[in-house]
Design a protein that fits this description.
- The protein is built from seven helices and eleven strands.
- With 322 residues, it is α+β, with helices and mostly antiparallel strands.
- α1 packs across α2.
Length: 322
């Protein structure tokens, strides 16, 4: 009798537990469903707010980008202006040296009269009133290149038609395709290096042979320009060490040309530069820079003035002797 009673009590206890558990599970499931729905609504609101905030931030960033672009344009304009002003300043300084420094006048020769800076676009930066001195000025540091000339390949071909056979190669080396606005280059594309991956060995050899064959024409184009009435006879270099003027060198351009004509054009190791001579005293390459403007596609001719001094006779005046 006691055993049966215990079993009945135990059975009722289990049923109660099961019933309670079932109710709890049911209640918990109902609670979870309600919480999930609320969580979804909350997350949706958060996401919508985040998307709105992101759009606002993107608008702010775009406005900042435009302002930064404008500031960079102003900065670039100021840099270019300062570069031009520094060039003009150096030309004025050389004129002052030639006009007022008696030692320098004796070295150069006193048969010239007052020198002044020439405005406008020509290869002559300064000249004397009697045209005894007609010179291009280059401010330089040892081993540092200076721009000698820059034009589009098409412009150069107009004056050196002998290069028509290699015009496409020069364009592929210098010119990126333009964006639809026609004012800036598309750098997602690429230029073609002067290597056997892009050209046959014969084509590369023919290109270099053509440059060497008409070397005199391209050197005259770079140093003298195309205006016969405004061609310099001297290159005057002013050597700087940091901000200090060290010396002035006077080279006759005809002597420079005579030396350079003994050198040969070659392709640089990087296959993007055509250099004259082993030490690249003259080099031809894509201009670059200009914040991606169309002008960055120009062919630039560079010179390293300091590398001329061991090979071209010149006059030298020490400004600040040690």
């Amino acid at each position: 009798m006691d055993t049966v009673k215990v079993e009945v009590v135990a059975s009722e206890f289990v049923e109660q537990i099961v019933a309670t558990s079932s109710l709890t599970v049911s209640t918990q499931l109902q609670t979870l469903k309600v919480n999930y729905k609320q969580l979804y609504e909350n997350e949706k609101k958060k996401r919508e707010k985040a998307e709105t905030d992101l759009k606002d931030k993107n608008r702010e960033l775009e406005e900042l980008r435009k302002k930064l672009e404008e500031l960079n344009k102003i900065k670039l304009s100021q840099t270019n202006s300062n570069t031009a002003k520094n060039g003009y300043k150096e030309e004025d300084l050389v004129c002052k040296d030639l006009n007022e420094n008696e030692e320098l006048r004796i070295l150069v020769g006193k048969n010239y009269n007052t020198c002044c800076r020439i405005s406008g676009y020509s290869k002559i930066d300064i000249k004397s009133e009697n045209n005894i001195i007609k010179a291009q000025i280059k401010k330089y540091k040892k081993g540092q290149f200076q721009q000698l000339d820059r034009h589009s390949v098409d412009d150069m071909i107009k004056d050196i038609p002998e290069f028509k056979s290699i015009v496409s190669i020069l364009k592929d080396l210098c010119e990126y395709p333009l964006l639809p606005n026609k004012t800036h280059i598309d750098k997602s594309k690429s230029i073609k290096k002067l290597c056997t991956t892009n050209y046959s060995k014969k084509t590369i050899e023919t290109t270099i042979e053509t440059l060497n064959k008409y070397k005199t024409k391209i050197l005259n184009y770079a140093f003298l320009g195309t205006n016969i009435e405004l061609q310099p006879e001297y290159l005057i270099g002013v050597e700087y060490e940091k901000s200090k003027r060290n010396k002035i060198v006077f080279l006759k351009i005809k002597d420079i040309l005579t030396y350079l004509e003994t050198l040969q054009f070659k392709i640089s190791k990087g296959k993007t530069v055509i250099k004259l001579g082993e030490d690249s005293v003259i080099s031809l390459q894509r201009k670059g820079g200009d914040r991606g403007k169309k002008s960055s596609n120009q062919l630039q001719i560079k010179i390293i003035v300091s590398k001329l001094l061991d090979n071209v006779k010149h006059l030298e005046y020490i400004i600040n002797p040690l």
